[in-house]
Automatic annotation (TrEMBL):
Presence of keyword Protease: no
EC number per UniProt: 3.1.-.-
Record protein name field: Uncharacterized PIN and TRAM-domain containing protein YacL
SUPFAM superfamilies: PIN domain-like
Molecular function terms from GO: hydrolase activity; nuclease activity; transferase activity
Required cofactor(s): Mg(2+)
Transmembrane segments: 31-54, 60-77, 89-110, 122-140
UniProt-listed PANTHER family: AAA FAMILY ATPASE, MEMBRANE PROTEIN
UniProt cross-references to Gene3D superfamilies, sorted A to Z: 5'-nuclease
Amino acid sequence: MRKADPAGGGENVARVHHTDGVVRLHPVGRFVVDIIFIRFLFVVVVAATCYVLEPFHLPRLWDAGVGAVVGAAIVLFEWKLRMVSLKRLIGAAIGSLLGICGAYLFALVIRNSVPAGNTQSFLQIMVMLLMAYVGLVVGANKGDLLNLAALGGIFGGEKQSKKSYKILDTSVIIDGRIADIAETGFLDGTIVTPQFVLRELQLVADSADSLKRNRGRRGLDILQRLQKVANLQIQIVEDDFPAIREVDLKLIELAKLYEGKIITNDFNLNKVAQLQGVEVLNINELANSLKPIVLPGEAMRVFILKEGKEYNQGVAYLDDGTMVVVDNARKMIGKTIDVSVTSVLQTTAGKMIFGKWDERAAYQRPAPAPAAAAPVAGTGPAAPPHNGGETKPGA
């Protein structure tokens, strides 16, 4: 990725991010100045030629102005053309030639069926422009399928690199872990985000429900994070399938069209896509092969949100949406408690943590001090005499 360096000093440099993560600066100012000078000189030459030859039969200054506009248009076309790959250029050229050949055949039909005149000339020109344009666009779009290495010659040393398309599902965007995976460099190829997925995210972000609205906004933030990853190419496609209403089925058809893989954590979409022969990258399956965030025996502090399905269970959720099922915590709904993790269950449908709340340990209090024991005979002070009896005289 190349960016202009904001540092001062008047030097024209480019910031180049290499795959090793090191940022190096290379001088490009002289090259840019040379290109601008050559383009400017080309426009001046075209304007001067029109001034001398007067090809438009206008006053010399007007001819020079029209020539300058034509030269600027050519420079603009050249600037846009530099951004196109060689495969697309070859595909566009082949498509244009085929379109012109088809236009010639149509022109023969028009010549024999339409009387000579302005109408015939107009139809012939329109057919030629239409066929050339259609051939150009279609050939450019299909140019990526060309195998230049098979042509030999100067293309013999070029390696055939097939693009790896990975299509994002709405659920995996909202989940957010895809951004962490991309930032670590484990994700390559072209990340495809369909327009209908963006529309679904926007509908969720505009929902009246605060929970859904936060989920939608989180998904949009994750897409912005993905766009900032230097070694990742994000492509938003307009392909849609109006005959199909379900977004999951549209994703499957799009994966078939691009011969790509679907990245999701939706269990049902995973199964349906596999039945139709579409490769799926399940984030939950990836997490299943990694070490869990908690281990049995560890303590964690959670907020009991609701009642569980089983008797005397409470349910809590972590920040990433992981469900925590706590035994003996039904009476603690609406409170934050410390639980001990008993097990972690990771499946393709998601992750669940099971814990236990020890009620006795939570309510344990220091035992009261024992009461003073009664004195034992012979060890304490003498008991007072019994006043109820009489004392015999002389005793």
